[in-house]
Amino acid sequence: xxxxxxxxxxxxxxxxxxxxxxxxxxxxxxxxxxxxxxxxxxxxxxxxxxxxxxxxxxxxxxxxxxxxxxxxxxxxxxxxxxxxxxxxxxxxxxxxxxxxxxxxxxxxxxxxxxxxxxxxxxxxxxxxxxxxxxxxxxxxxxxxxxxxxxxxxxxxxxxxxxxxxxxxxxxxxxxxxxxxxxxxxxxxxxxxxxxxxxxxxxxxxxxxxxxxxxxxxxxxxxxxxxxxxxxxxxxxxxxxxxxxxxxxxxxxxxxxxxxxxxxxxxxxxxxxxxxxxxxxxxxxxxxxxxxxxxxxxxxxxxxxxxxxxxxxxxxxxxxxxxxxxxxxxxxxxxxxxxxxxxxxxxxxxxxxxxxxxxxxxxxxxxxxxxxxxxxxxxxxxxxxxxxxxxxxxxxxxxxxxxxxxxxxxxxxxxxxxxxxxxxxxxxxxxxxxxxxxxxxxxxxxxxxxxxxx
Length: 453
Description:
By secondary structure, the protein is of the alpha/beta class. The protein has helices at 2-8, 26-33, 57-69, 82-90, 105-108, 151-164, 178-186, 197-204, 231-246, 249-258, 270-276, 283-293, 297-308, 328-333, 342-361, 370-380, 382-394, 402-411, 416-419, 431-448; strands at 35-40, 48-50, 53-55, 72-78, 96-102, 112-113, 118-127, 143-147, 169-173, 192-196, 210-211, 215-226.
């Protein structure tokens, strides 16, 4: 009986099944890594940097959605070619395409669309100084320029041509965004282009020569898009969209970026200012001083913006001054007498950064993450960062890495359990502030890198 029982308990190898865990969903991957990775377009409505500040309709919405999920937002790439962006989304480079995508039958085969963010139309854009086309039939014989990736515009123009039995020439331009084509119409380089009505209206407030009266198509859904299998993520987007509609945020942002008030002087165009790519009046100074650090100058600019929003007369409650919020002791150490003079202030701040960089280059810190230790030290002091390193060692973390290792103990260095630890030689620190400071500088830098140089 015992032998029979033992034999009966042996697994049936032919009928046994190995349990295979399903591949994590897109939403699970986002929540696990703590980052929402997106692609967007760089232009005057979707996402841009102006006077050092990152703005844009889709950027602000994506930040809000990331907050809704409880994760950070990361703009992986700015890609103004729709086909390329779709291909990279399908290959897993992004979680989400956060720009104005029209829902076409072809795209619904490739993507999963969210509920519409808004609806718009498509219009012909022409220069007011030329004889205006007021009837679609009068497009016969005309050349119309569109971006090569604008498949929906090409299809629309083909339908107009076929239905009205007219002949028009569609010229697909590579490496040009719709906004660049609008600018060419504005200055008279080309006669016609096609664009979404809301974008045309927003551009016409500063590009005063544009006529956008001739509507070609109505009631087009504009949405975000995910990979076809990202059902849970798209459902979360739709739940969040319902909230921002109800609380008025979606409508507020739409009016802010597509309405008439753009906060740009009337005598120039928002497009020209953003295309120029200036971050601040001090860009040349940042370029000069960053060389001694071996940094991209835009990283130094991101730090300065985080410190003072480029205000050379900024003063903090703790007695820090100027662009880089220099304290008197640091200024004296580097021979600076005038805290508010930009050249002197940035010189002293950069010298202090250079000192911190050299210091941590001699510490057992991963070279690829050293910048994060330097930034944290610039905000809180090297002593507090060393305390966090010692705590990481004590609790079995990798003390050579910042992300998800040392940064945890910096984040919690305002809690007695940690700042009263004998290893903490420098005591209490506003750790959450420093933790957020490092994130903010690097996020700002990531945005600044999207500016054309």
